[in-house]
User: Which sequence fits this backbone?
């Protein structure tokens, strides 16, 4: 039976099964949901056993468990290792949801609910392609699954589990559907992810909040000082001024930049969607390049003094900010953190004290576009969509992907089918039925071409 | 009977009576306390009647009532109009108080409780001086009292009440104890108060919070933009860059600057008390001048993006700040607000939208130092403290004082006896018994010299 016939025949059952998974509120950020993490992992074991794996197990970690499963048809054949995550983001502000986040529904051609796309909807496609191949006797290679429960909070225990399970995780390629594509008619393959260094800074002035009348103009105000320091982190060309920041940045070839420029990107639509009059960024680069191949520095949060209703005349004692840097290949995220700390301390005036602390981080990742796996993906998209996919470097970060390469020595192929409009991480997350079924078709094509 | 004997004989009674006033939680900022405002006003009528006024009444306004009282001994004699306020600041964070804020106690030579200084303790001195003069037949002039209940929230209804009562508020001088002095052994008279313009700004970038990975480096981040805009509000000499900001600033004469320089101000102690390595401010001015005779601009609050625990990778849609400007004589606070708005809008880059809204404000105030009232105060301090008082321009603002001059045509004399260590507006407010009794002695001296 051809994949399209199989999908057509099982359409409703696929949704019913996915909805069972979507109903489990497996929010990794909230410790109260620990039992839900266990339930979601057990549900995955059930899904994979039903789909035909030889064995599947819930592997405990110090956090949410990891699900491991495999079907080895012939050790001499290539092995695909599917990576996914069953945890989801918190749902607040829950009052903005039009339907309850854990009561999935289909409406207007979309599945609505937390995890509909990220990553339950996308990962479930892999289970169904596997089921198709085993039930039709067309499975062309060995397949392994590793499905974790804390991707949304940094994959700390997943990394430990990987290190302890290198032997059974041996594979030729890691296959992941946890990213997006340009549009329903514009297939793309994510070939790059940026790295991340996330820091928090605190500027301390006077030892207590002061009356801004009695002291204003005579004492350095930490809020004003922090603004000056942050302002100085970019120069007039939009470049980050942290000393050494660009030293290791990988220069992308003109050929690769030309390939990126082929993306069906419309600047006017982009500005309109964000309701901005102008874009901004590093001089000499396009918008796609600014997020794809160039690093960036952003304030993610800033707070100081009185932030309630009305007015309070205070010179705050402290001012704080959360600042993150998105990194590109070759930039070392711990080194960048250290450079930032040294730079930020060096620009502090003698009127204040400065403290810089590190949050999480991770390196950038790049997929080669000449590997057999990439070529298989390219062929599969071309067949399914009737149009060649565009290689695309996303500005986002999935730190575990770079860790897989480092720890397991295996590259990943990011076959993501999400759309910008899916609102992952936000209220009213959704996933288009078109993308769900087209994703199953495309992934099936990947196996066919990869194992040829 | 001499004033010192009168004080000695009535010491404990003065405290007992003051404590009755301090026990009333007359917090003007909290609407729930409206009944307490009424109770405090009625308590003042009782205090003043007992002290010997001809008549005293609770005058309703659209907010807390104003207490008015008078004793006219001879229309041909000069009239002193005492201004004070019976409202107090909120008490949160209440867990930082060592004793309950509305259960006053004496300990370590101080009265502890909300309002102990500001302004119940200071204003009560006037009632007791008046009582002394009436009970000993030494009242040398007419005395009027106006005691309001919303000084801490802007005196809006007090101003309306003043406008409607100009006739009966006629006076030669307004006497106020609602400020501080340099030290217990360093008497000073506040001869200036700064004006205030308080604004709030909002910078809007994209129409929703964005993922900082997917968009970072390609879209103007309103938090970064706001920092740049705020940083540009001062130049490298510490001067405010708002166009026209200094145009109307009154230039203080060298003689007046020399007089200010006589203040017993110790820069090392000032820095030590605030735990700062360096002071900061406009080049060419001393610390006392920077708060006394020069305007200033401060961020009083700033907020944008994620400010909770841990990290969130977001480009905020909006960034906000509360910014206040302290003004000196001749600067018009509404004009300065307009100049700020025009300037801030003019420096906004095309990547964002900016909105500026006005909060409250008020003009600066200066007391002449050659008036009969000032001379009487000067003589009274010199006698009571055995040391000449220093004229001092405070950086703070009491907008109603400038309004009195404008509406009633009467100058004020600011005989304040508070100390920096009294922690007004903060938890554990206190007022030294020494200053309380010395204040009564000094104010009695003022009447003696003023009505000579």
Assistant:
């Amino acid at each position: 039976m051809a994949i399209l016939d199989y999908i057509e025949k099982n359409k409703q059952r696929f949704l019913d099964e996915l909805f069972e998974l979507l109903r489990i509120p497996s929010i990794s950020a909230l410790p109260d949901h620990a039992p839900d993490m266990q339930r979601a992992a057990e549900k995955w074991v059930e899904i994979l056993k039903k789909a035909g794996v030889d064995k599947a197990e819930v592997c405990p970690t110090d956090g949410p468990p990891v699900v491991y499963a495999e079907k080895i048809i012939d050790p001499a054949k290539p092995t695909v290792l599917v990576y996914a995550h069953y945890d989801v983001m918190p749902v607040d502000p829950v009052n903005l949801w039009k339907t309850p986040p854990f009561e999935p529904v289909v409406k207007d051609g979309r599945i609505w609910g937390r995890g509909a796309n990220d990553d339950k909807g996308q990962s479930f496609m892999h289970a169904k392609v596997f089921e198709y191949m085993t039930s039709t006797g067309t499975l062309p290679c060995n397949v392994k699954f590793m499905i974790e429960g804390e991707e949304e909070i940094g994959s700390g225990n997943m990394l430990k589990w990987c290190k302890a399970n290198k032997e059974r995780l041996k594979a030729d390629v890691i296959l992941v559907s946890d990213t997006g594509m340009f549009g329903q008619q514009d297939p793309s393959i994510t070939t790059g992810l940026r790295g991340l260094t996330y820091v928090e800074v605190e500027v301390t002035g006077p030892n207590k909040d002061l009356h801004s009348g009695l002291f204003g103009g005579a004492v350095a105000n930490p809020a004003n000082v922090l603004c000056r320091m942050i302002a100085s982190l970019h120069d007039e060309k939009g470049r980050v001024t942290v000393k050494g920041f660009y030293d290791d940045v990988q220069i992308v070839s003109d050929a690769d930049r030309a390939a990126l420029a082929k993306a069906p990107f419309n600047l006017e639509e982009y500005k309109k969607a964000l309701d901005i009059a102008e874009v901004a960024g590093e001089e000499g680069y396009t918008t796609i390049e600014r997020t794809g191949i160039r690093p960036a520095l952003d304030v993610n949060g800033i707070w100081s003094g009185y932030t309630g209703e009305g007015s309070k005349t205070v010179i705050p004692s402290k001012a704080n900010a959360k600042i993150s840097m998105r990194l590109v290949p070759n930039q070392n995220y711990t080194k960048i953190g250290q450079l930032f700390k040294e730079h930020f301390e060096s620009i502090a005036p003698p009127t204040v004290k400065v403290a810089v602390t590190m949050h999480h981080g991770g390196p950038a990742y790049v997929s080669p576009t000449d590997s057999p796996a990439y070529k298989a993906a390219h062929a599969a998209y071309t067949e399914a969509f009737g149009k060649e996919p565009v290689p695309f470097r996303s500005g986002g970060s999935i730190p575990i992907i770079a860790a897989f390469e480092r720890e397991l020595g295996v590259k990943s192929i990011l076959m993501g089918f999400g759309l910008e409009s899916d609102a992952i991480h936000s209220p009213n997350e959704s996933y288009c039925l078109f993308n769900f079924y087209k994703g199953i078709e495309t992934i099936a094509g990947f196996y066919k071409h990869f194992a040829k």
About this structure: Residues 370 and 376 of chain B are 10 Å apart (CA to CA). The first helix of chain B runs from residue 3 to 22. Chain B has a mean pLDDT of 95.
